[in-house]
Design brief:
The chain is mainly beta. It has helices spanning about 60-75, 140-145; strands at about 1-5, 10-15, 20, 25-30, 45-50, 80, 85-90, 95-100, 110-120, 120-130, 150, 160-170, 180-190, 195-200, 210, 220-225, 230-235, 240-250, 255-260, 270-275.
Length: about 280
């Protein structure tokens, strides 16, 4: 078995001699020496993909099985459930195993679906296996059980990042007479997973950013990590936030900029690296 490590932090193990192919849909794993149908499709293969799972907290939720039953029948009409939902342990948490029988490409097959839910997303592995195959029927479980996720500490975040916002008594107002205070927001990432946010106020306006801000100075600490292009922070008061982020040089003077984007609203905020 060899380990596959995706840039997102996700990893799993699979047999070294197998073919692994990645495309826009997901990852395909094809066992070594497997025979192919007349259509050219292998008679046994694995597909690893992801799908949104809003408000789903468990892979054993009946909605999960219903989702895959609809998916499998759209692809291999006439497929039926085979037995009850089973369970599987993974590095991402407890998962479920949903079994079907069907005839994709006209080949009588067992179709096993392994699925785990994490942060309202479903990660699943589909194992399509010709009923006459002599391969290890439990290989899908072995691969799925090896799933792991390693959040990382992005060294590009280390340091202090500042942003100033002028507060106004009227949201969206550009009338200078209505600017009451300037809000200075400062994030400090220590490069080891610790972060603090500091908020200070002054009576002068030093930025072109305009927003209505509650005047309540704060100092808060927490832990941070990143996964792909997403930054996660868990504050000491128990609140958790996630932003899409990027670090890049300002096109004017080359000064480093941190962009944080709220994934719900799509609103960007830009922070300048503090010397």
């Amino acid at each position: 078995m060899v380990k596959y490590q995706h840039k997102s932090g996700l990893s799993f193990s699979y047999p070294e001699e197998w073919v692994l192919r990645e495309d826009e849909e997901g990852l395909y794993l094809i066992p070594d020496g497997v025979k192919r149908a007349n259509s050219g499709m292998p008679k046994e293969y694995f597909f690893l993909g992801m799908t949104p799972a809003p408000e789903i907290t468990s892979a054993e939720d009946p909605m999960v099985a219903a989702y895959f039953e609809k998916m499998i029948n759209a692809w291999a009409p006439g497929s039926v459930r085979a037995g009850q939902t089973g369970s599987v342990k993974t590095g991402l948490g407890p998962g479920a195993v949903i079994s079907f029988t069907g005839a994709p490409e006209g080949i009588e097959s067992d179709i096993l679906i392994y699925v785990v839910i994490r942060d309202e997303e479903g990660l699943y592995l589909i194992h399509v296996r010709d009923k006459t195959a002599s391969s290890d029927a439990q290989m899908g479980r072995k691969i799925f059980s090896s799933l792991d996720l390693r959040l990382r500490i992005d060294p590009a975040l280390a340091g202090a990042w500042v942003r100033t916002e002028r507060s106004s008594s009227s949201a969206g107002s550009y009338d200078p007479s209505q600017f009451s205070t300037t809000h200075l927001v400062r994030y400090e990432f220590d490069g080891a997973g610790n972060v603090t946010i500091k908020s200070d106020y002054s009576s002068s306006s030093v930025s072109d950013d305009v927003a209505t801000i509650d005047n309540s100075a704060s100092y808060l600490s927490g832990k941070y990590s990143s996964l792909g292009e997403v930054l996660y922070v868990e504050w000491e008061d128990g609140t958790e936030v996630a932003w899409n982020y990027s670090v890049f040089p300002d096109y004017n003077d080359g000064h480093l900029i941190l962009k944080l984007q709220d994934p719900d609203t799509g609103k960007d905020k830009f922070y300048r690296r503090s010397e």
